[in-house]
Write a structure and sequence with these properties.
Blueprint lengths: L1 E6 L9 E7 L6 H9 L3 H7 L10 E5 L8 E8 L8 H15 L4 E5 L8 H15 L19 E6 L5 H26 L7 H15 L2 E5 L1 H7 L2 H7 L7 E8 L7 E12 L19 H16 L4 E11 L11 E3 L5 E3 L7 H14 L4 E6 L4 H6 L3 E6 L2 H11 L5 E4 L17 E2 L7 H10 L7 E5 L5 E2 L9 E2 L4 H13 L5 H11 L1
Parallel strand pairs: 1-6, 2-4, 2-5, 5-6, 9-10, 9-13, 12-16, 13-17, 14-15
Antiparallel strand pairs: 3-4, 7-8, 8-10, 11-12, 14-17, 18-19
Helix pairs in contact: 3-4, 4-5, 5-9, 6-9, 8-10, 9-14, 10-13, 12-14
Bound molecules: ligand BES, zinc ion and manganese (II) ion.
Length: 514
């Protein structure tokens, strides 16, 4: 699909369909009035009869009148003006592109939602992302290809005035990059575990490294043994598939010592190990590498966007399998930093692989850490499937992340890391245990990981509830969401622009969260 920006009269565009955004309240914009005119007053009539209100998610595809160049007009509801946000631009573009595909319309012109005026670059980006992500193929294994895929060949965003073209275009370039890399991550998460083993993740990382210009290093089982990654290996030991610890390095600011690290959980299948999961819904555990796929996609996006920042991406990739050589409950293992861990539950494997991933990130010079993982079922109980759990030891750093996430319309919510929670991971025989029972499951998962960040500013994202959606929604379809990918790529850009505080402030935050 080709995405472009042009100026001119939207309804004169020579395309199969023109998409017109409509709010449910307030005075209609010029383009809505023009569309109604072209439709011979049909829109007014539909509104009167309550057939189309302009509510969020409402879509109507209507034949355009004879005097209109386009064949169809796609009306897309945006809801109330006061509820409109930057992120809603992606939804609008996504709904329009998917509606066009269903009707076999291959070229689409998008009118700019008028309330989106303000930051044209951001708007252009979100619309390009929405259109690009809407073209994702969720069922590549079907022998009879999904009819909708590849139908829409060209999407043109029409700028209302020539002056805004340049900024919208700049945004569209960014949005195309981020949308493409989000789709790449979604493709990895969607692939079944027999086609997405640790080896495949390493191959993807290497291929993107070559294509987009970052260095890739892959540790094999023997390397990890030598380096003392006993925590990671205690998970990998149950599988016959070679595990991979993958590092991607982008150096955009060689003069600086500040290094942002993104560390992703890359469990290509989580059976639970000896603490075996029930068979119902176990197939969903092919997606337990979503954090890792997001890191690969975000690193590729960062290398293409080229911020003046140093960024390392790490993917801790292995299967979690039961077998004759698998780790057993009660076994004690040692991470790269020397800390001993009593493995109470082999299904709490994400924190075990991340522990050594974080140690390695620090070895590679990381000063700021973000880990992203489908870590706990408990986060779904706490926040549901719409909101990602955020935990951090550093107010300023986590505020930077919230700033980075703001444009994208994804929901993030913080949970506390009060010191009292450390009780839950205390072991009577080792430095800590990997599971502490049913209470505060998401929090003590993070408390465990915190043991490996030393004094670095750190953010933990638990995406177990948000990495997959069960329903079509705007630019997304049932399947992987690539949640947090765009925010993390943007975080690297903000990291390049803003200086972060010293350790003294960090100590103040510790007191604050305590
Ligand atoms: N990968 C799972 C978490 C998960 C659950 C992701 C549902 C997506 C959907 C993780 O490895 C896991 O099994 N966590 C355990 C931790 C427990 C044993 C402490 C859980 O949440 O039950
Ligand atoms: Zn898992
Ligand atoms: Mn598990």
């Amino acid at each position: 699909m080709k995405f472009q920006v042009a100026s001119g009269k939207t309804l004169s565009a020579r395309v199969d369909a023109v998409a017109v955004p409509i709010f449910s309240d307030g005075a209609d914009s010029a383009i809505v009035r023009q569309a109604d005119l072209a439709l011979g007053g049909l829109l007014k009539d539909m509104r009167k009869r309550g057939e189309f209100k302009g509510d969020v998610d409402e879509v109507a595809v209507l034949p355009a009148g004879k005097r209109t160049a386009a064949k169809r007009i796609i009306l897309v509801g945006l809801g109330k003006r006061s509820d409109f946000s930057t992120g809603a631009n992606a939804k609008f573009a996504g709904l329009a592109v998917r509606a066009a595909a269903r009707r076999n319309l291959s070229s689409v012109a998008l009118a700019l939602p008028e309330s989106a005026r303000g930051d044209d670059r951001e708007t252009g980006e979100l619309i390009a992302e929405g259109a690009t992500m809407a073209a994702f193929d969720p069922a590549p294994y079907k022998t009879k290809r999904e009819k909708l895929i590849g139908v829409v060949k060209s999407v043109t965003l029409i700028a209302p005035d020539a002056a805004s073209v340049a900024e919208l275009k700049k945004g569209a370039v960014r949005g195309t990059i981020l949308g493409e890399m989000a789709n790449a991550a979604r493709e990895m998460v969607n692939a079944p575990s027999n086609d997405m083993r640790p080896t495949h993740l390493a191959e993807r990382a290497k291929a993107f490294g070559t294509k987009h210009g970052f260095k890739v290093t892959v540790l094999e089982r023997a390397d990890m043994k030598r380096m003392g990654m006993g925590s990671f290996l205690s998970v990998a030991v149950g599988s016959d598939e070679p595990p991979k610890m993958i590092a991607m390095e982008y150096r955009g600011d060689p003069a600086s010592k500040r290094v942002l690290a993104l560390i992703g959980k890359g469990i290509t299948f989580d059976t639970g190990g000896i603490s075996l999961k029930p068979s119902a819904n176990m197939e969903a555990m092919k997606g337990d590498m979503a954090g890792g796929a997001t890191v690969i996609g975000a690193m590729s996006a960062i290398a293409r966007l080229k911020p003046k920042a140093n960024v390392i991406g790490i993917v801790c990739a292995t299967e979690n399998m039961p077998s004759g050589h698998a780790t057993k409950p009660g076994d004690i293992v040692r991470a790269m930093n020397g800390k001993s861990i009593e493995v109470i539950n082999t299904d709490a494997e994400g924190r075990l692989v991340l522990a050594d991933g974080l140690c390695w990130a620090r070895k590679l010079g990381a000063t700021h850490l973000v880990d992203i993982a489908t870590l706990t079922g408990a986060v779904v109980v706490a926040l549901g499937n719409t909101t990602t759990g955020v935990m951090s030891n550093d107010r300023e750093f986590v505020d930077l992340f919230h700033d980075a996430a703001r444009p994208y319309g994804e929901r993030y919510w913080e949970l506390p890391l009060f010191p009292e929670y450390a009780e839950l991971i205390k072991s009577s025989i080792a430095d800590m245990k990997n599971s502490g029972g049913r209470e505060a499951g998401t929090i003590y998962g993070a408390m465990f990981i915190k043991e490996f960040v030393e004094d670095a500013p750190w953010i933990h994202l638990d995406i177990a509830g948000t990495s997959w959606t069960d329903r079509d929604d705007g630019h997304l379809v049932k399947g992987p969401t690539a949640v947090a990918l765009r925010p993390l790529a943007h975080l690297a850009e903000l990291f390049a622009q803003r200086s972060l505080h010293s350790k003294a402030d960090n100590a103040a935050h510790e007191r604050f969260v305590a």
